[in-house]
C-alpha cells in the first residue's frame, strides 16, 4: 500500500468477494430455466454469460433507483428467453419462475475458502469491520447468515438503506461513519475494479480489487490492461486472494 496510512477499519463487498455468488447465479439460472425448456450445454453457457454481462445495465439501473430489484430481474429474464428463442414470460409465468429461481439461488450460496479467515483476522487485529453492498440489505443479511459470517459481520450498509449505491462516494462514506473511521483509515475490498476499488479510492478510502484467477467479467465489465494500469496509477491495490489482504493493514505505520 503506497504511503503509510493507519488502518482502523475494513469494509467488504459481499457478492463474488466473500460469497461465490457467480456460481450460485449459474446454478439457479440453469435449474430455473431448465424448468421452461431443455437446455444444451451451449444454451446454458450462453444464458449464464448473458446474465453475467448484463449488457442492458439493468442491475445498475436498480442501483441508481430506476428499477426495483424484481423489475431488473424480469428485464434480464426477458433477455434470457430471447437468447434461448423462447417467448417472453407473462406475469404469472414470471412469478413462478422467480420464486423457483430465488429458492435455488439461496440454496447455492457458498463462502469462499479464504473469506472467514480474512474477516476474522481483521476482527482479531482490533479493526472495525462491515459491509457495503449494492444489493438489498435484507438479502445480504440473509446471505451473510447463511454462509456463517453473521457473528463477525453485523454492520451492513446497503443500497436501499442509503438511497444510492456504488460508485457514489456517499455509500462508502456511510460505511465509514458506521464503523467510526475516517475514509483515509479504511480499506474497501471488492471484485469489481471500477465500482468497488476504483470508486473507493475516489471516495478517499484504500480501494482493493480482488482479482481471483479465472473469474474476471466479460462484456461491458471487462478489465483491459489499460484500465488496470490506470487504476493502479490512481492507487488501487490488487490482490488475487483475501489471504493477501491482511498485509495491507499490517504495513509499518498502521495502527493494527
Structural descriptors:
6 strands; globular; Rossmann fold; 6-stranded parallel β-sheet; alpha/beta; 256 residues; 12 helices; 10% strand
The best one-word shape is globular
**CATH top level label of the largest domain:** Alpha Beta
- Please give the largest β-sheet: 6 strands, parallel
Mind telling me which CATH architecture of the largest domain this is?
A: 3-Layer(aba) Sandwich
Unreliable segments (pLDDT under 50, ≥5 consecutive)? none
Would you report the number of β strands? 6
Q: What does the average pLDDT come to? A: 93
CATH topology-level name of the largest domain:
Rossmann fold
Sequence of secondary-structure elements: EHHHHHHEHEHHEHEHEH
Helix residue percentage: 40-55%
Structural class, by secondary structure, is alpha/beta
Topology:
Layout: E1 9-12, H1 21-34, H2 41-53, H3 58-63, H4 69-83, H5 91-107, H6 115-124, E2 128-133, H7 137-146, E3 156-158, H8 159-162, H9 169-179, E4 186-190, H10 193-202, E5 206-210, H11 225-234, E6 237-239, H12 246-249
Parallel strand pairs: 1-2, 1-4, 2-3, 4-5, 5-6
Helix pairs in contact: 1-2, 1-5, 2-4
Describe the overall structure:
The protein has 256 residues and is an alpha/beta fold. The protein has 2 domains: 152 residues, Rossmann fold; 86 residues. Helices cover 48% and strands 10% of the residues. It has a 6-stranded parallel sheet with strand order 3-2-1-4-5-6, sandwiched between helices. Helix 11 links the parallel strand 5 and strand 6. Helix 1 packs across helix 2, helix 1 packs across helix 5 and helix 2 runs antiparallel to helix 4. The model has no long low-confidence stretch (mean pLDDT 93).
Amino acid at each position: 500500500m503506497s504511503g503509510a496510512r493507519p488502518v482502523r477499519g475494513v469494509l467488504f463487498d459481499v457478492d463474488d468477494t466473500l460469497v461465490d455468488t457467480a456460481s450460485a447465479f449459474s446454478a439457479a439460472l440453469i435449474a430455473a430455466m431448465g424448468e421452461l425448456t431443455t437446455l444444451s450445454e451451449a444454451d446454458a453457457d450462453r444464458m449464464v454469460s448473458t446474465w453475467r454481462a448484463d449488457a442492458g445495465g439493468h442491475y445498475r439501473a436498480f442501483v441508481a433507483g430506476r428499477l426495483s430489484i424484481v423489475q431488473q430481474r424480469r428485464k434480464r429474464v426477458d433477455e434470457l428467453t430471447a437468447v434461448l428463442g423462447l417467448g417472453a414470460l407473462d406475469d404469472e409465468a414470471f412469478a413462478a419462475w422467480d420464486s423457483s429461481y430465488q429458492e435455488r439461488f439461496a440454496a447455492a450460496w457458498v463462502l469462499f475458502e479464504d473469506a472467514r479467515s480474512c474477516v476474522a483476522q481483521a476482527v482479531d487485529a482490533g479493526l472495525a469491520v462491515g459491509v457495503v453492498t449494492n444489493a438489498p440489505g435484507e438479502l445480504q443479511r440473509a446471505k451473510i447468515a447463511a454462509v456463517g459470517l453473521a457473528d463477525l459481520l453485523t454492520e451492513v450498509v446497503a443500497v436501499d438503506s442509503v438511497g444510492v449505491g456504488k460508485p457514489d462516494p456517499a455509500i462508502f462514506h456511510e460505511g465509514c461513519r458506521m464503523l467510526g473511521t475516517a475514509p483515509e483509515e479504511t480499506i474497501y475490498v471488492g471484485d469489481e475494479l471500477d465500482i468497488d476499488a476504483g470508486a473507493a479510492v475516489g471516495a478517499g478510502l484504500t480501494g482493493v480489487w480482488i482479482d481471483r484467477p479465472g473469474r474476471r467479467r466479460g462484456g461491458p465489465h471487462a478489465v483491459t490492461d489499460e484500465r488496470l494500469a490506470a487504476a493502479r496509477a490512481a492507487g488501487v491495490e490488487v490482490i488475487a486472494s483475501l489471504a493477501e489482504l491482511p498485509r495491507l493493514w499490517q504495513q509499518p505505520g498502521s495502527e493494527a
